[in-house]
Amino acid sequence: MMTNLFSIFDPSTNIFNMSINWLSTTLGIMFIPMMFWFIPNRYMYMWNLIFNKLHLEFKILLNQDKMKGYTFLFIMLFCLVLFNNFLGLFPHIFTSTSHMIMTLSLSLPMWLSFMLFGWINNSQNMFSHLIPQGTPLILMPFMVLIETISNIIRPGTLAIRLTANMIAGHLLMNLLGSTGTKMSNYLMIILIFTQFLLLTLELAVSIIQSYVITILSTLYSSEVN
What we know:
Layout: H1 2-6, H2 42-61, H3 71-87, H4 100-121, H5 123-130, H6 140-152, H7 154-178, H8 185-222
Helix pairs in contact: 2-3, 3-8, 4-5, 4-7, 7-8
């Protein structure tokens, strides 16, 4: 039972026992609107509206003029995580964001680039973030230690938050679905309704978690300027 429960997170396939399921990470490319449409359709209009809203919000968070041109990178991060979260809700599609190797591969390089950029180009500002304004002199060593640990664990918290939220919902839906064959017709109706509610909740979680990891990454990048 436990093996079958976690088999939905197994990236390997029956084809030479290779981890081909990771290829599902690139399926989101199919959802990007093609730019050769002669007449803009509703689908392209929807994505343009989303991109413009995200661009305006990230531009405000990136309060330095020299960083406002990098909003495109964070929008692409949002799309990548969103596509993988959303596609994982469909049957027989592997959810790559439910693995730490995927989420940590996104968060760790970003965090390292932010830290290197900040300490090399703006060391004084980075030191000032270690001691909040108004901190008593006796508490300064402790605040430096706390802020340092807080900065170090940031990529881990980003990765674990996304992975845990993806795993939790998928496990619950799979666990409830595996009990359907043992239920009566009356309980089956209740189960289907419950699964529909869970699927709606997971859809909201997939969008929210994509937004959260992007917003936090944007805030972390704004601190190094």
